[in-house]
Design brief:
Largest sheet: 8 strands, mixed, barrel
Number of strands: 11
Helix content: 40-55%
CATH class of the largest domain: Alpha Beta
Shape: globular
Radius of gyration: 20 Å
Strand order of the largest sheet: 4-5-6-7-8-9-10-11
Oligomer: single chain
CATH topology of the largest domain: TIM Barrel
Order of helices and strands: EEEHHHHEEHHEHEHEHEHHEHEH
Number of helices: 13
Length: about 375
């Protein structure tokens, strides 16, 4: 493997027209890669902290590069730990989680390129995580909450095709997405197909269950599971009302996936949902757990969830993200890797999900270029995995 020669950082725009970081990392063997970081809009309070983009770029040039230059690029854990020590805070708030993650992703990508292996395969070998089968695509077809300018409280309405093939999944999702668009126009007019942050349609509807009714109608000829991300920390509704709504979703629409059904500190309410709905419903933590092994241990101790969202920018390094996956596997939880609402065209999350053997990956609807980049990378990976 080669040593680090240079790191250059600059500002680019993400999918919400906000500034983020792109890093170009160069190894002494001439390998040169780029990496950029996403940003969430519905953030958990316990996530690692990004800093102002200009400050993050300065930190990369003035602190991270001098500390890493000349070091072996392939020792991901040591390099990530070095950046954490350099930052010196619990939540990466001095150098910035965005600065650290951009470099961390670039390091693993450069090492994969230098080794001559596809990124997903390099991550699989580096992480030494057992693969638990194919990674299913979780497609957010109707957007609400903070991801859309409509009246829906629920942030995401998802379909999950029942197939192990990325190509078949993409084809099913595409068909359902087009069917759903046609139905929305017929029922609510052309404006109903305006899209939210993650490419899903963003119509204003009469209640929070109507999107599931529309999705059921659009997908009746396909084998899919359905789910929601409630992002309930942002919902002004009592737990009693929320539980009543979820009961109807499970009973009428056979809800398979239930993410963040209550606020981010309500481990007890999560446990209640898991006890009521059983293992057949994946009660999943996102804001509750924020890819943080300490928060995950608390959730396990209280038996609050049976699934977890994994987002690299919630914790700030690739090695810590891998450790979160390892811990979730030890607990027997379903693992779903995820994009963020403010994305770039960087498709790292697709390689990461396949590399660590995640059960699922959330990448939005098959619309908007930054989401399509992830779909297309999953298709490429499937062709490479022969």
């Amino acid at each position: 493997m080669a040593k680090i020669s240079d790191i250059k950082a600059l500002k680019i725009l993400n999918s919400r027209d906000d500034w983020t970081i792109e890093v170009e990392l160069i190894l002494e063997d001439g390998s040169c890669v780029k990496a950029s970081v996403p940003e969430g809009k519905s953030d958990g309070s316990y996530e690692a902290v990004p800093v102002d983009v200009d400050k993050a770029i300065l930190n990369i040039h003035e602190e991270i590069l001098p500390a890493l230059r000349g070091l072996e690029s392939s020792d991901q854990l040591a390099l990530d730990n070095k950046m954490r020590e350099l930052d010196g805070t619990e939540n990466k708030s001095r150098l910035g989680a965005n600065a650290i993650l951009a470099v961390s992703i670039a390091l693993v990508r450069a090492s994969a390129l230098s080794s001559g292996r596809p990124l997903w395969k390099y991550i699989r070998e580096m992480s030494r995580l057992e693969s638990f089968g194919a990674t299913r695509i979780y497609a957010n077809l109707i957007n609400g909450g903070k991801h859309a300018g409509n009246n829906l409280d629920i942030q995401e309405y998802l379909i999950i095709p029942k197939t192990e093939s990325a190509k078949e999944s993409a084809d099913i999702i595409s068909h359902i997405y087009h069917n759903l668009g046609t139905i929305c126009v017929e029922k609510y007019g052309e404006s109903a197909t305006l899209v939210g942050d993650e490419g899903g349609y963003a119509p204003s509807l009469d209640n929070n269950l109507t999107p599931l009714k529309l999705i059921k109608e659009a997908s009746n000829e396909f084998e899919v599971d359905v789910g929601i991300d409630a992002a309930a920390s942002g919902i002004k509704m009592s737990n009693e009302k929320l539980v009543e709504m979820y009961r109807e979703m499970v009973g009428v629409y056979n809800l398979f996936y239930l993410e963040d059904p209550f606020s981010e500190d309500d481990f007890h309410a999560f446990k209640g949902a898991l006890l009521e709905f059983g293992e057949g419903v994946k009660v999943t933590g996102d804001d509750l757990t924020v890819t943080n092994t300490d928060r995950m241990r608390t959730a396990k101790a209280q038996e609050s969830i049976n699934g977890v969202i994994i987002k690299p920018n919630q914790i700030g390094t690739v090695s810590e993200t891998i450790e979160a996956v390892r811990q979730a596997r030890k607990y027997g939880w379903q693992v779903v890797a995820s994009h963020r609402s403010g994305e770039t065209n960087d498709s790292f999350i697709a390689d990461f999900a396949v590399g660590v053997g995640a059960d699922g990956i959330k990448i939005g609807a098959p619309a908007r270029g930054e989401r399509i980049a992830k779909y297309n990378r999953l298709l490429e990976i499937e062709r490479e995995d022969v």
